[in-house]
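User: Can you recover a sequence for this backbone? Please restate the input before giving your answer.

Assistant: Of course. Working from this structure:
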């Protein structure tokens, strides 16, 4: 049965319609995108375990760390074994994370939540996140930004479904939300497993040498730079361009995830008349902005270029953070609008990154290189929430509440965005000499 997962068993026939691939990718990304709705569980978990915001925030941070690490170390494995096997094991780990997490809640063992939702769930996140990316770029070489935007849009939009669904389950499966966490985890784990398996057994890889109708197979340029081939993972990893791109992604993610991870409690602290139900709706709205930004901005990058697109993410994003710090409490509408735009940039940064890597390093190992790049997400997943949670806990200890819990964090994020903006301006195309030196290593890295 497991032989059905082999890459050779998932090669599409020559006349296969490539538009069947994005729905398969969306099935996985919409499922693992639930992690962005984790803030819905924050207050019930604090009540259930009678602990601090920081202690609960660690669960989310572990899952994001493991996402980046599993993507980095599993990138070559995904390229070798294909998206079907990767999606299958992603579903196993992601669902197991919910089951072990439910056991931790039921027994009062917080470390089981760290192990389940954090560690096991994070493994599922990383493998599932990168599994369709290189496949989509190979199916859509004519529109790589749009292709990756469609799939990664699902990851950003996962919370749009998960936030109201989780909120409803927490209300109905127990006397209080704190009592309903365990059964909610069980329901989510089973549901996501079923959806991810549908995606895994639907996805296909293109035949060797396939190109879209009307598009000629690219040939090496006169200077020796390959148009659709590219450098090895190790070569890319040692270049200045990779580490500048790593810094860009780290800064964009740190600033965006700082809002996303704290979305529900933050809006309630900024505006006292906003309750849990409205806050869950706000989380869903941010998910919608995150989702649409992944499609709209990455598709726009096909026309205006990746570098210019990131100038908008980081430059305008920093200004919006400053405006929230200065005037965010003046209006709920203003606060929601500004954070929504920031989250659209956050999502767009993720979906534009694979196409940016393809432009810099070619398509041959873009999935594995993308996996290495996601270590930036791992570190940002710790840095962003930790900055906000630690500052909020310090402010609480000092007797402060409301917007004062988050104002200093907002100014910190303005500085983070400025660093990313500078790194993006320093990115230059990879010299042709690097491609030529790498030409002897033509085989796909395994």
């Amino acid at each position: 049965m497991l032989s059905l997962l082999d890459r050779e068993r998932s090669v599409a026939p020559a006349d296969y319609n490539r538009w069947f691939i994005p729905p398969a990718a969306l099935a996985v990304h919409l499922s693992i995108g639930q992690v962005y709705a984790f803030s819905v569980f924050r207050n019930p978990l604090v009540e259930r375990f009678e602990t601090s915001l920081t202690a609960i925030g660690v669960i989310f941070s572990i899952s994001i760390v493991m996402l980046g690490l599993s993507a980095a170390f599993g990138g070559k494995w995904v390229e070798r074994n294909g998206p079907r096997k990767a999606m299958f094991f992603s579903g196993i780990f992601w669902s197991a994370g919910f089951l072990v997490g439910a056991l931790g809640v039921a027994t009062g063992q917080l470390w089981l939540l760290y192990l389940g939702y954090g560690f096991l769930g994070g493994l599922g996140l990383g493998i599932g996140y990168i599994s369709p990316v290189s496949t989509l770029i190979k199916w859509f070489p004519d529109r790589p930004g749009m292709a990756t935007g469609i799939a990664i849009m699902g990851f950003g939009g996962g919370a749009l479904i998960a936030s109201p669904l989780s909120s409803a389950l927490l209300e109905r499966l127990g006397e209080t939300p704190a009592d309903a966490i365990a059964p909610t985890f069980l329901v989510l784990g089973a549901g996501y497993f079923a959806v991810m398996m549908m995606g895994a057994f639907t996805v296909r890889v293109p035949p060797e040498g396939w190109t879209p109708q009307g598009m000629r197979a690219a040939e090496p340029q006169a200077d020796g730079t390959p148009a659709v081939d590219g450098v090895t993972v190790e070569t890319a990893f040692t270049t200045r361009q990779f580490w500048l791109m790593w810094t860009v992604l780290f800064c964009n993610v740190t600033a965006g995830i700082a809002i996303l991870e704290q979305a529900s409690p933050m809006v309630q602290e900024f505006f006292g008349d906003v309750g849990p139900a409205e806050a869950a709706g706000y989380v869903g709205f941010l998910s919608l902005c995150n989702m649409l930004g992944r499609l709209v901005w990455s598709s726009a990058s096909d026309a205006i270029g990746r570098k210019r697109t990131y100038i908008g993410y980081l430059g305008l994003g920093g200004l919006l953070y400053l405006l929230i710090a200065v005037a965010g409490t003046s209006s709920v509408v203003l606060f929601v609008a500004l954070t929504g735009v920031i989250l659209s940039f956050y999502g767009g940064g993720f979906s534009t990154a694979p196409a940016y890597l393809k432009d810099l390093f070619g398509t041959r190992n873009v999935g594995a290189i993308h996996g290495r790049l996601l270590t930036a997400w791992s570190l940002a997943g710790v840095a962003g929430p930790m900055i906000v949670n630690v500052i909020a806990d310090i402010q609480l200890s000092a007797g402060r509440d409301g917007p004062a819990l988050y104002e200093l964090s907002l100014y910190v994020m303005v500085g983070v965005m400025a660093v990313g903006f500078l790194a993006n301006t320093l990115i230059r195309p990879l010299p042709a000499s690097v491609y030529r030196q790498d030409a002897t290593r033509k085989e796909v890295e395994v």
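That completes the design. The chain has a mean pLDDT of 85.
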